[in-house]
């Protein structure tokens, strides 16, 4: 497998956006962060371009106004003016909004920017043939996209060209990525397919396994006399696991074990290496092939979204997950100590 290309600020020619109209559709988590970054980059590079925000008339629109942007609710008109269109509404909202109001109003040669591969990989957007489609998909929540930009640190991002109508979509993708601050730390060349496979696999195979393992571990240890307080602290409340993940990023997924005791090192490595991974592997493969690549998850999800049952289904899942020993024990601990380890320490200090 060839190493992926990584693009930096110097690879991007921001002047390609000179005189252009950049439209952000949605001013939520990503929309606000990316629009603010873009405006700062235009100012910093002395690039003259116009930024417009399209959002329903509500508190998000008010926030965009307060941030000094021109905000419109006329999606079609704003789209007809735009050279670059950031599609930053939730993934489940995009097909209906794009296919009814955005796609039909786009001018030829305009560029649609997606922040997630989902709708393009599953071909849910009717993008006109004369339009470019590029992806700039930050691997961060919006607040980090903004704070890391402000502190000049940059953030990881996947970039790709999904449809090249003008012949320079790659250069535009890099200029756009630079605009949102994504080439500062290096934007990794990817694709909507790769982004979707990795993202959905983590959500539908890897993290469910982790959630299930924690839930079962909690139940078993509790049945063997361990208290809620001890278990919640050990499993995550102390923030030790969060620190371990930080060390994984700094030193390596396995190498960070050098910070643990010999008992822990032997226990963890010997335990992991003697596990039979084939059970995981065959379940993982099923999820990847049927649920993700063949689109079973997408079809079920779209059906729930269309029939208006999605929110209810998610509520029911939260309700069920709230009944496990871990969730019940955690509630008791949070009620007693507060919702963070810092709060618990604060309470302890108050008593001195
Ligand atoms: P948010 O939920 O934070 O933002 C939603 C925006 O869309 C708000 O402005 C909201 O405004 C608007 N919106 C919601 N429903 C509708 C509707 N029916 N019609 C018109 N506007 C609507 O979304 P995110 O920023 O989280 O996600 C945007 C994109 O970024 C997605 O593709 C997502 O996958 C991607 N992404 C998200 C990341 C994250 O951490 N959140 C990380 C990386 C990528 P209002 O509700 O006021 O109408």
TrEMBL record:
<protein>
    <submittedName>
        <fullName>Ketol-acid reductoisomerase</fullName>
    </submittedName>
</protein>
<dbReference type="InterPro" id="IPR013023">
    <property type="entry name" value="KARI"/>
</dbReference>
<feature type="domain" description="KARI N-terminal Rossmann">
    <location>
        <begin position="4"/>
        <end position="190"/>
    </location>
</feature>
<dbReference type="Pfam" id="PF07991">
    <property type="entry name" value="KARI_N"/>
</dbReference>
<dbReference type="InterPro" id="IPR000506">
    <property type="entry name" value="KARI_C"/>
</dbReference>
<dbReference type="GO" id="GO:0009099">
    <property type="term" value="P:L-valine biosynthetic process"/>
</dbReference>
<dbReference type="InterPro" id="IPR013116">
    <property type="entry name" value="KARI_N"/>
</dbReference>
<dbReference type="InterPro" id="IPR036291">
    <property type="entry name" value="NAD(P)-bd_dom_sf"/>
</dbReference>
<keyword id="KW-0560">Oxidoreductase</keyword>
<comment type="pathway">
    <text>Amino-acid biosynthesis.</text>
</comment>
<dbReference type="GO" id="GO:0004455">
    <property type="term" value="F:ketol-acid reductoisomerase activity"/>
</dbReference>
<dbReference type="Pfam" id="PF01450">
    <property type="entry name" value="KARI_C"/>
</dbReference>
<dbReference type="GO" id="GO:0009097">
    <property type="term" value="P:isoleucine biosynthetic process"/>
</dbReference>
